[in-house]
Write a structure and sequence with these properties.
The chain is mainly alpha-helical. The chain has a domain at about 20-49. Helix content is about 60%, strand content about 0%. It has 3 helices and no strands. The longest helix has 15 residues, at about 1-15. The protein is extended. The chain starts with a helix and ends with a helix.
């Protein structure tokens, strides 16, 4: 529960400040996953248009 509350708090702060300022592209996320020998969750990849 603490983790979910902290995540929600961070999201509210980010949104109240005008949204995200830095983002990562779908390709960068995939490359980062390869670098650490993991595969990003499909649900995370689906967030990209």
């Amino acid at each position: 529960i603490d983790t979910a509350e902290k995540s929600a708090e961070v999201l509210v702060k980010v949104l109240s400040m005008g949204g995200m300022k830095q983002t990562i592209t779908r390709e960068e996320l995939i490359a980062l996953g390869k670098r650490f020998n993991v595969q990003p969750l499909q649900s995370a990849l689906d967030l990209y248009p």
